[in-house]
Amino acid sequence: MTNKAGKIIVNIVLLLLGIVTVYPFVWMVFSSFKENQEIMALEQSLLPQHFITENYINMNSRFDFLHFFTNSLFVAVTITVLVVYTSTICGYVLSKYRFRGRNLLFGFVLSTMMIPWCVTIIPRYSLIQTFGWMDSYKALIIPVMFSGFGIFNMRQNISAVPDEILEAARIDGANEFYIFHRIIFPMARNGIASIAIFQFLWAWEDYLWPYLVINTQEKQLLSVGLKMFSGQYSTDYGALFAATAISILPVLLIYLFFQKQFIAGIAASAVKG
Fold first, then answer.
1. What is the dihedral sign for C-alpha 81, 87, 90, 93?
2. Owning domain of residue 67
3. Is residue 178 part of a domain?
4. pLDDT tens, 242-273?
C-alpha cells in the first residue's frame, strides 16, 4: 500500500510539473490567434475571445519569416547530417578497432564535453576571423562538425554490435567502406536518431553564435530573426507568437517521428563499451 501511494504521489507531482512546463507553450499557441489588445489586456483567458488568423497571414509581410526559416532549416539539417556521419564513423573506429592510444583519444573526446561552451567562444571567434569565414555559413557549420557527445553516444551504441557479424562480412570479401555503410549504419539507427534529435534541437535554437558571426540580415537564422522582429515590432505580439509557434514545429515533428528510436538510442548508450 505504501509503494502504491508513493507511485500515486510521484505521478501527481510529474503531472503538475508537466502542466507547468507545457502551459506557456499552449498559451502562446492560443495567443497567436488573438488580437494584440486581447493579448495585452489585464484580464487574460486561455482561449481567444475573438479568433483571428491574420497573425499568420500577415506574419511574413512584417518581417521575412520564410527566409529566416529556410536559412535555419538549411543550417540545422546540414549540421545534423555532418554530426551524425562523423559521430558514427568515429564511434565505429573507437569501438571496433584496436590501436595504440585508443583510450587516450577517447579520453580527449570526453574532455571536450567537460569544457563549458562559453569558454571556447573567444578562441573560436578568433579562428573564424583568421580563416575569413565571418558572415558565412562556414562559421556556423564547420566548428560543430564533430560532437564529443555524439562520438561518445555512438561508441556506446556500436559496442553492442557483435564482432562476429563484422568478421563474417570481412570473410565474405566486404571492405570497411561497405561494412560501415551497410552494416554499422543500419544497426546503429537508434543511436543515430537520438543524436539527430539532440543536434537538430541545438542547431535550431542556437542564438549567440549566429548573432556573433553573421552580420548580413539575409543570411541570419530564425532564432536571431525572431529577436530582431521582437525589437522592431515590440507591440505586435500576435505575429511574434505566430512566428514562434511555427518555429517550434520542426523540432516537435522530428521528435514525434523518431520517438521510439530516440528512447532506444538513449537506453543503448548506457551499455558499457
1. negative
2. 63-268
3. yes
4. 888 888 888 888 877 777 766 665 665 555 44
